[in-house]
Design a protein that fits this description.
Length: 693
């Protein structure tokens, strides 16, 4: 974890490591814990060490945990097995207080030390039942995603792929929100039916998936299919799609929960445990699981589910089955990417798109599946990953298992993909947990910054992180000049949740070629502005509405009373274009942070091969102005802070903006979007709450 943390939006080394960002994610989680929650911390490198056993998170223990997290350091090897063992031991050596238990394993490398010879899954089977669910997080492209996915399946948890720093916040926010919104644990579904019926569960093949078995119930031979569901969340259904066949009858499909009338029955029995929180420090005596049963007649079409809902569940299951075929299970219980038949995958994908039921319906859930499957960029990441072999090798083999996991467990795992975003959308508890965690993460100071947090938020979580039942309880205008700055506040960590911003507040003055100034919101196609290389014309203007967005107020000018509102990672120059920097890097009296609601703007100038022709003087004119980079500036690589493979590519930016549909003034409205790797790759139409560019 010593490697630099990749950050979408700039290619300048940030001085941060993966460990720095993981520590910040850990601090986010810590801050959300209440005195009734417990936290344990295990680190693993060449060796594994328990640096904190499960402790209740009162203020004193929180302070201690925060210091331990901040003091974490990386070591050379990755002894994942020893880390998991110690994580289990942390739970085994503590009292069960009835809370939801989860072990979160974070890693950015391949296990290369202390690996069990027979494999991780066979070794864990000898240790079951595990004392907690097991969630795994793979950071970057060097992880063993197949193993992490299998571990999460065996531990009835979730696997998430974090391609770069731009995704770390949203992934951890959703992971903890799902934990906090847990209604029941150890959920287990048993289906029994006549041996004359052949039942197949459509979906992915997992490390814990079982085949139907013959059993005798009350002297009658029946078939039994057992499905482990793990945790259940408030406000979110869990749905299985079954396909069955019976002698003398045609093949039929049914979604569990449908009502029908016929001769053959299936009995569904669900057992689960509800958490029971006792007094702090007390031991909870586990109660017997709650058991509920129902029966369904299989040979008649369901009347309780709409055709659109049936189509959605069938389509979701078929997508999972297809993606699962790309990562078959090996004898060791680990998923292994099969990249020998990439061309056949393309054909199979095309066939799936042609026949999938979701294409015939126009409700939000079915549309979301089609967007992920083959929608226009920035959507359609399944097709993007599979139809380009280079993409499949680099990020598809990590992204696709993570995406499949979200659909299989029906959880929202990030703000990125339309399909998983449907889960939890009707759960007020999940949404409130997510919003609170978002606020906590966004307001963390950068790594190594000990300035106070914005508002009341703060920090926590770590490399092998063992939270015991994190329970949930359930417009301004920018200042412009002659306003004394408030006390400096720490810059938001939202950089690591959203792509780098490249925008100015709507009232920002821009110097024209004539020497006068005009608010950036009034710029139009053809307007002549001043650049370091002389006068240039505006080609296009991009705008986007934001609410409570963190902007930097940069203080400059001879008097020190002028200020410029700009997003933290929009490169600016204070020395006439000789050097460039990020506003978020300014310290002391040169910058403070504000919250802004309104429009933000970016500008694209006429084509020119000289990078100096792609900057505008903002905030004033003459010595009172600051140079701000414009879109398509031509710097696409290197250590220059302006360098960006998309935002610096004039042709790519121009094509993407043109696709948004400009008005007669050359103004377009859109937002920054990312590809499956989490990198800014284009601009998209704003739909509802959009992610800030």
């Amino acid at each position: 974890m010593r490697d630099d943390a990749p950050v979408p939006g700039d290619s300048e080394p940030t001085g941060l490591s993966v460990m720095d960002l993981i520590k910040h994610a850990a601090l986010t989680i810590l801050q959300t814990l209440t005195p009734g929650d417990r936290l344990g911390i295990v680190v693993f490198g060449t060796r594994s060490t328990v640096i904190q056993s499960l402790l209740y998170m009162n203020e004193g223990n929180k302070k201690t945990a925060r210091a331990k997290i901040k003091g974490l350091r990386s070591s050379g090897s990755t002894n994942l097995w020893h880390g998991i063992q110690n994580g289990i031991r942390v739970f085994d050596e503590s009292l069960d207080n009835g809370n939801v238990r989860a072990m979160m394993v974070l890693t950015d490398g391949m296990p290369n030390h202390g690996c069990p010879q027979q494999g991780f899954i066979p070794k864990l089977k000898a240790m079951q039942p595990l004392p907690a669910t097991l969630d795994t997080f793979g950071f970057g492209y060097g992880v063993r995603s197949g193993l992490l996915k299998s571990l999460a399946e065996f531990g009835h948890g979730n696997y998430a792929f974090i391609p770069d720093a731009g995704m770390i916040g949203t992934v951890f926010v959703h992971a903890v929100a799902n934990l906090q919104a847990t209604f029941a644990t150890e959920a287990f579904l048993s289906l029994t039916y006549s041996p004359s019926i052949q039942v197949t569960e459509v979906g992915e093949t997992t490390a814990v998936k079982q085949r139907p078995q013959r059993t005798v119930l009350e002297k009658e031979t029946r078939m039994a299919l057992h499905v482990s569901l793990g945790n259940l969340q408030f406000g979110q259904t869990r749905d299985l799609f079954l396909r069955f066949k019976q002698a003398l009858f045609e093949t039929r499909s049914v979604a569990v929960g449908g009502a029908a009338e016929a001769n053959s029955t299936m009995t569904a029995t669900l057992s689960y445990r509800k958490s029971k929180l006792g007094p702090i420090g007390s031991k909870c005596i586990p109660e017997a699981p709650i058991v509920v049963s129902t029966q369904a007649y299989l040979l008649q079409v369901s009347k309780s589910l709409s055709t659109a809902e049936l189509a959605y569940h069938e389509s979701r299951a078929e997508i999972c089955r297809f993606l699962s075929s790309l990562f078959p299970l090996g004898p060791d219980g680990e998923h292994h990417a099969d990249l020998t038949t990439c061309e056949s995958y393309k054909r199979t994908l095309a066939e799936l798109v042609a026949r999938i039921p979701a294409q015939h319906f126009h409700d939000a859930r079915n549309i979301s599946l089609m967007q992920d499957l083959n929608g226009p960029l920035p959507h359609g990441q399944i097709s993007v990953a599979i139809n380009n072999t280079a993409h499949l090798y680099k990020w598809g083999i990590h992204y696709l298992p993570s995406y499949m996991n979200a659909h299989s467990r029906q959880i929202c795992n990030s703000f990125k993909d339309p399909g998983p975003l449907q889960y939890g959308a009707e759960s007020p508890l999940f949404i409130s947990c997510r919003d609170r965690l978002n606020d906590a993460f966004d307001r963390l100071p950068p790594p190594g910054d000990d300035q106070p947090f914005l508002k009341d938020s703060s920090s926590s979580s770590s490399t092998s992180f063992s939270p015991s039942s994190a329970h949930s309880h359930s417009s301004s205008t920018a200042p412009h000049e002659h306003r004394p700055p408030p006390p400096p506040l720490a810059l938001s960590m939202s950089r690591y949740r959203n792509p780098a911003g490249v925008c100015f507040a709507e009232n920002t003055p821009v110097e024209l070629a004539s020497g006068s100034t005009l608010p950036i919101r009034l710029l139009r196609w053809g307007t002549k502005v001043r650049t370091p290389a002389g006068a240039r014309q505006v080609a296009m203007v991009l705008r986007m509405a934001v609410q409570d967005e963190t902007l930097c107020c940069v203080v400059y000018g001879v008097s020190g009373h002028c200020s410029l509102l700009v997003t933290p990672w929009h490169p600016i120059s204070l020395d006439g274009g000789a050097t460039w920097m990020f506003p978020g890097r300014l310290v002391g009296d040169d910058m403070y942070v504000v919250e802004y609601t309104g429009w933000v703007y970016s500008v694209m100038l006429q084509p020119d091969g000289n990078a100096a022709s792609h900057a505008i003087r903002v905030g004033g004119s003459g010595s009172d102005g600051v140079w701000g980079v414009t879109l398509g500036h031509g710097v696409v690589r290197g250590r220059d802070v302006r360098a960006h493979c998309f935002l610096g590519d004039y042709g790519a930016v121009g094509r993407s903006l043109a696709g948004l549909g400009e008005d007669k003034f050359g103004v377009v409205e859109g937002r920054g979007v990312r590809d499956g790797r989490g990198l800014v790759c284009g601009f998209g139409v704003v739909e509802g709450d959009s992610e800030n560019m």
